[in-house]
Amino acid sequence: MGVISGQAYWAHVMVPNTKFNPDGEYSIEICNLDDANLKIAEADGLTIKNKDDERGNFVTLKQYAKDRNGTQRAIPVTDSQLKPFPNEKRIGNGSAVNASYFPKPYTQYGGGVKGYLNKVQVVDLIEFTGGDALTPVQGGYVANTLDDDIPFAS
What band does 147 get if pLDDT is binned at 50, 70 and 90? Predict the structure, then answer.
């Protein structure tokens, strides 16, 4: 079991992501790895990615939302003092985190090592609030939504 530290991106650790797996999968990218954490990732054989963007060098850790018996599992998420992380909050991109994982070799698709996510500790939260930053624009286009202005054939 290992622990790696960095900035969280695309954290699906409170609620599993069902986009590619209907049963759900927890995942998190641990990004902007410093030299010490790069060495940890390399020593465990994790795939280190770099897309030349704000994430820098990063690894992706995942865990299935259900165990082999089909029982739903949760990823324990804590704050910096190891107290349970509030269920109503979401971890936003750039949050400082520590992630516990289990490296497991695989042979399919050319082989490698997958990091199975065990726990996440949020050290410095940048809260994801969802939605977008759009606001009403004064003097802009306004759709006419009155029912009596819609012409109907008689």
Answer: low
**Residue 137 within any structural domain of the chain:** no
Asked if residue 71 belongs to a domain, the reply is yes
pLDDT single digits (tens) 65-91: 999 999 999 999 999 999 999 999 999
SS3 43: helix
Instruction: Indicate whether 146 belongs to any domain.
Output: no
Residue 29 CA to residue 7 CA, distance in Å, equals 8
Q: What single string gives the DSSP state of each residue in 46-108?
A: PPPB--SSTT-SBEEEEEESB-TTS-B----EE-TTSPBPPTT--BPTTEEEEEEEEEEEE-G
Number of domains observed in the structure of the chain: 1
- Is 154's pLDDT higher than 60? no
CATH number of residue 120's parent domain: 2.40.50.140
In a domain, 135, yes or no: no
Q: How far apart are CA 128 and CA 61, in angstroms?
A: 19
Summary mean pLDDT of the chain:
92
